[in-house]
Specification:
Elements (H helix, E strand, L loop, with lengths): L9 E2 L5 E2 L8 E2 L10 E4 L2 E4 L3 E5 L22 E3 L16 E7 L2 E12 L2 E8 L10 E4 L2 E10 L2 E7 L1 H5 L3 H15 L4 E5 L4 E4 L6 E2 L2 E2 L8 H12 L5 E5 L4 E3 L4 H5 L12 E4 L2 E3 L33 E6 L5 E6 L5 E4 L3 H12 L6 E8 L12 H9 L4 E4 L2 E2 L1 E2 L6 E5 L9 E3 L3 E11 H6 L8 E2 L9 E5 L17
Parallel strand pairs: 6-33, 8-32, 18-22
Antiparallel strand pairs: 1-2, 2-3, 4-5, 6-7, 8-9, 9-31, 10-13, 10-25, 11-12, 11-14, 12-13, 14-15, 15-16, 16-17, 18-19, 19-21, 20-21, 22-23, 23-24, 25-29, 26-27, 26-31, 28-29, 30-31
The structure holds iron/sulfur cluster (SF4).
Length: about 500
């Protein structure tokens, strides 16, 4: 049996093969590959260059070597064919390159495997840092080209939204190409340098710490300034009279905060700059930046007004600390009620270290997001909307390279996947430009037939041994085994 993808491609004169796996329709000379390097002309045949990646559940991996494989102890239900290297269905009405069946827990399961060509796709990037990367909606650039924007920040993280059809197709040719390159590299867990208009430069790599303006971020903050006061108030009680946790969003002040009130901490006469939200919680004490607590300050005293002489007393001890514990200072009021920096007592140093200890490592997270609710559904079924409904009803499981995905509620099949859970180099591209990513739909055979699937193309997974280009890798036990029948299927 030959690879299904080799059925495609048109033969022209002089041994040239026309690849029809995407709209570019490359004419490929013998021994050469097409524009995306994914297809080549091998002895006059159009061949998908990369191997099809198969996940193997067995604890003791046994080589599964394509044509040479002739019956090792592997059980069919322990093999999962991913879309990586599978080939595409373009121009869409063709059945998916692999539609394989296996018996799992007594249930006849079918997996429909393809590589999606995604013009509608992008990545959502979470960057664990308090440092200010740039204003919301600011343009994010790679190699000088606009590839996305800053979106709303989350708890301890700055968020970017990159790619999307607007940048892939709506700008210049270079913008589309650079966007495609950036998306592919980020999705393949490679580092990409991004520059934000009016903000910072950040090197993003999935699963690695961000590098902001050349400095590697170590810690994600323990919480906002107010939360930090709440968490550590008791540990500070009796060791210091006042604590200010500096935060660009919500700066906390111990003596005014509810946590301090419940501990009977006396007023200190402190006066904060910024806008008081509720007792002991202040907004906008400074401008955003890459200094203390995501503000632009390097001197924490700059966010204080003069102490109130009616309440303040000389000798008042004050700790100022950032939300990661990266910055900290200890001050004592002099006779003129001016805070004077002094060496920090050992027990307060310990409390700063406790803040640091409670910070998680700062990482970049890259979620690939794409719409699979369009034409690629025709490779699965002749009645595409039934696939959409089947996914929505949890009858069909969607995976990407065998990794679990989150499918958005509502119309279409819009999914997100953490790229670090996928096999290496799962993503490719075509120069239209668009990203090529693996996608698999798994369901009971009866359901597949019921939704109008290409029944005549189903073949037992064991027949994959006839495919020459196969690479078997171990399944990650932390993930659900993608062949397990869906709980929600109810049949
Ligand atoms: S870009 Fe790649 S997939 Fe598209 S036609 Fe050329 S070789 Fe085929």
């Amino acid at each position: 049996m030959t690879d299904m993808t080799e059925r495609f491609g048109a033969h022209e004169g002089d041994g040239i093969v026309r690849c029809d796996a995407c709209p570019v329709l490359c004419r490929i000379r013998p021994g050469k590959s097409g524009a995306c390097d994914r297809y080549a002309n091998v002895d006059g045949n159009l061949v998908r260059v990369d191997p099809v990646v198969i996940l193997q559940k067995s604890e003791h991996a046994v080589p599964f070597m394509g044509a040479d494989w002739s019956g090792n102890p592997l059980r069919p239900q322990d093999l999962f064919v991913t879309g990586i290297g599978a080939g595409t269905t373009y121009p869409d009405y063709k059945p998916a390159p692999f539609i394989v069946s296996s018996l799992v827990e007594g249930v006849d399961m079918v997996t429909v495997v393809t590589e999606g060509i995604f013009s509608y796709c992008g990545v959502k990037v979470k960057i664990d840092t308090d440092r200010y990367l740039g204003p919301e909606t600011a343009t994010v650039r790679a190699q000088g080209e606009a590839v996305g924007h800053v979106t709303t920040s989350e708890y301890g993280s700055q968020m970017l939204s990159l790619g999307g059809v607007h940048h892939l197709t709506g700008g210049s040719k270079k913008e589309g190409r650079v966007t495609c390159d950036a998306l592919m590299d980020l999705s393949n867990c490679k580092p990409v340098e991004l520059a934000i208009d009016g903000g910072a430069t950040v090197v993003v790599q999935a699963g690695r710490p961000p590098i902001v303006n050349g400095a590697t971020e170590e810690r994600m903050r323990v919480g906002c300034g107010s939360a930090t006061i709440g968490m550590f108030a008791k540990q500070w009680h009796g060791k210091v009279d006042e604590v200010v946790v500096v935060d660009d969003h919500i700066t906390g002040v111990l003596s005014e905060h509810q946590a301090g009130k419940l501990l009977d901490i006396a007023d200190t006469g402190i006066k904060m700059k910024g806008r008081r939200s509720t007792p002991g919680r202040y907004f906008q004490v400074a401008q955003p930046g890459t200094g203390w607590g995501g503000t632009n300050i390097s001197d924490p005293l700059s966010i204080l007004g003069p102490f109130d002489p009616k309440e303040a007393r000389p000798g008042t001890r004050m700790l100022m600390v950032s939300t990661t514990g990266e910055h900290a200072g200890y001050y004592v009021l002099d006779k003129a009620l001016r805070p004077i920096e002094q060496d920090m007592p050992a027990d307060l140093k310990l409390s700063v270290e406790r803040i640091q200890e409670n910070c998680e490592p700062a990482l970049c997270t890259v979620l690939f997001m794409a719409g699979a609710g369009g034409s690629l559904r025709a490779g699965v079924t002749e009645n595409p909307v039934r696939l959409t409904r089947s996914v929505r009803d949890a009858i069909t499981r969607v995976t990407s390279g065998g990794a679990p995905v989150y499918v958005w509620p509502g119309g279409g099949i819009t999914y997100m996947v953490d790229v670090t859970t996928m096999p290496d180099n799962s993503f490719g591209y075509v120069p239209t430009p668009a990203i090529v990513g693996p996608i698999e739909f798994t369901m009971r055979r009866a359901d597949y037939i019921g939704l109008g699937g290409h029944e005549g193309f189903i073949r037992p997974v064991e027949t994959i041994r006839g495919v020459e280009r196969v690479k078997t890798i171990p399944w990650t036990p932390a993930h659900p085994w993608p062949l397990t029948p869906q709980v929600g299927a109810g049949r």
